[in-house]
Amino acid sequence: MKRALAFVLLTLLPLPALGQATGDLGLVIERATGSLLLIDRSDRAALGRIEGLGDLSHASMTYSPDERFAYVFGRDGGLSKVDLIDRKVVARTLQAGNSIGGAISDDGRLVAVSNYEPGGVKVFDAETLAPVADIPAAGKTIGLVDLPGRRFAWTVWDTGEVFVGDFSAPAPQVTMIGNAGKNPFDAVLTADAHTYLVGLFGEKGVTAFDLWSDAPQPEKFLTDYGKTGEDMPVYKMPHLQGWAFTEGQFALPAVGRHEVLWVDSETHAERGTTPVHGQPVFIIAQPASPYVWVNFATPLNDTVQVIDSRDHSVVATLTPGKAILHMEFAPRGAEVWISSRDDNKVLIYDTRSREKLAEIAAQSPSGIFFTARAHQPGL
Amino acid sequence: MKRALAFVLLTLLPLPALGQATGDLGLVIERATGSLLLIDRSDRAALGRIEGLGDLSHASMTYSPDERFAYVFGRDGGLSKVDLIDRKVVARTLQAGNSIGGAISDDGRLVAVSNYEPGGVKVFDAETLAPVADIPAAGKTIGLVDLPGRRFAWTVWDTGEVFVGDFSAPAPQVTMIGNAGKNPFDAVLTADAHTYLVGLFGEKGVTAFDLWSDAPQPEKFLTDYGKTGEDMPVYKMPHLQGWAFTEGQFALPAVGRHEVLWVDSETHAERGTTPVHGQPVFIIAQPASPYVWVNFATPLNDTVQVIDSRDHSVVATLTPGKAILHMEFAPRGAEVWISSRDDNKVLIYDTRSREKLAEIAAQSPSGIFFTARAHQPGL
Fold first, then answer.
1. What kind and span of H or E run contains A296?
2. ipTM rounded to 2 decimals
3. Which one of A5, A375, A379 makes the best mutation probe of the B interface by having the most chain B beta carbons within 10 Å?
4. What is the C-alpha to C-alpha distance for residues A29 and A189, in angstroms, rounded to an integer?
């Protein structure tokens, strides 16, 4: 019997994840293998791999308010719920043919997914992934974000229409709040949930909606912003999720040009331009600092530049590795974690010295997502 | 043998704290009993009580980056390390005669405490609470905050001197960066770690230091701000930790007056005044909204007011209970948790409807601290 007891003790006790606090965890998308790497920020280490996520060649995720679960949106239309404590996929639904992103409601009860095929937005119970609402649209939906009060906003590529959906009552209320313009390619919400910014591809300009207003109106600015026929080809559509908001400015990636544009966040007047190494993909503010970090589209994607938002000057140019796809900051800004896809590594840099501190093996890493995102509106 | 196995399974499995995600946890200071109430934001519930914290009649806390540990600073000079997973005090040191607050370094390795008796700052290893550095001062230290790069800033009440301590190398480097003025009573750091604001008691005015600058200079503003001989007595010194930063403004509690003052965060020019119910204690921005919530000093402390930062108007006046001591928002703003000391309750309000959703029994609750604070500079 002693042997039996010892066996039980051995099989029960060494579960790796007992008593795991979740504040410094994160997940790295391994795009080629459809897997996630669970990472620990304090230990600068990988804790394990979670597999079976489907096609993650273009994927993003959001976290439950308790940081226990990640909701992963895959290119194949798969919505997967991943348990960070038990380190496995606990629910998965192929909810569309092609999805491009999603969001979780501020109370953590609903997960919304924006889809390309078919278009529209689907809303799921965050606990079970049971369908709750299916909002059709006249085309592909982009720029889906969470708003306070169990609401979401999204935009339709084909029509330019912007919607706010309120899911606080049993019957959802969906309102068209205005037209952003021709072929909006992405949209983003400022951290204070005040301004919803929509980038246009079919015409020049960016359109802002004041979501604190009871009747938001589209306000177009930077009307010489965008792709022109003369420009270089656009190698990669920049992500507006990577727009930085710093020092009363928006830092925008110029579409198809080697430039970062600075716009006053109150007046929407242009404040300056920074010539950079390539076509910007992500422009991300280093927390608790005046700096933004920028990565670039292929074939210039071995480089990262750091820009001072006060004078718009490039203060550092780093070449951390091959195919730099994403950067994620420790929430108080001490470190930045950088995915180098073709080196199969995540690189950890000190933001003060801008020296490499450590690296972690990963399979074709792309997006890096720390759990602190659970506490930020619009992420 | 089956019975023995069943016994082992029963004793091993139901440990209460296994697999606890920590993102939606919090602690409430129970000031009269020296205890902490562990709370779960998603379940709107108390999970348990942790005792033996000493004198918590004036106390605050900060969290480790992984959200597993809280460091509690008590009035008796006690520094206690509390494990949220195992729900107990795991280390405690009586490090001074009277401490008033502290901070944790951005990498989570060091905890600093600011003391009244004796003055100065003591720094401890966050793992063991072993002493690391003892920085004497010419008086009581106030306004201790963490800065990026394993640094802290603090101010000395008796001399007005402001210091930055850099603990990134083995030997700490402490630099006096300037003099704030006569008898600074508290100081606070903006969320972007840009501006360190020092409120003065011995003279009128507020002093700002630009901590992004290599050589910060004191810049005094609002020089008609502060206590005058003609004013009402100051029933409770306002907390600058409760200063709100919203819409490009600082919202400041008028010392001794029934007013909230609005100051432009760039120019430091006064933008307006809001007459309010009493002497403001905490002025806290509701995340993802234009609103700030204000509570008041005794004897008018049964009331909470909500002010719109756009036009400075009071949009709601609530009387949630007796002796409202603190308010803490869910990090994405859906709810506010309010401690009502003399009702022995924590009240949970929906921020959109401003209706009460639930309440939780607590013994003389004062400060409420959600773990999401782990990810904010200066908290």
1. strand A291-296
2. 0.91
3. A375
4. 23
